[in-house]
Amino acid sequence: MKKVINTKELSEMLDISIDKARQLTRAKDFPAIKVGREKKIILSKLDEWLEDNIGNIF
Fold first, then answer.
1. How many CB atoms lie within 10 A of CB 54?
2. Which residues belong to any copy of the Helix-turn-helix domain (predicted)?
3. Which of 22, 33, 49, 57 has its CA 20 to 30 A from that of 42?
């Protein structure tokens, strides 16, 4: 199983546009790391982050 996904995979997983996925990854506490020019989202932390941000508008 993958431990990280890229922004395109995040957009597909959440059924949002790539632009909106990029916007999410810029949130202060979003569980991502930057590898070169690409952001990698840490799957083990993503669900917790989503739950912590229920009701927030991005």
1. 6
2. 6-53
3. 57
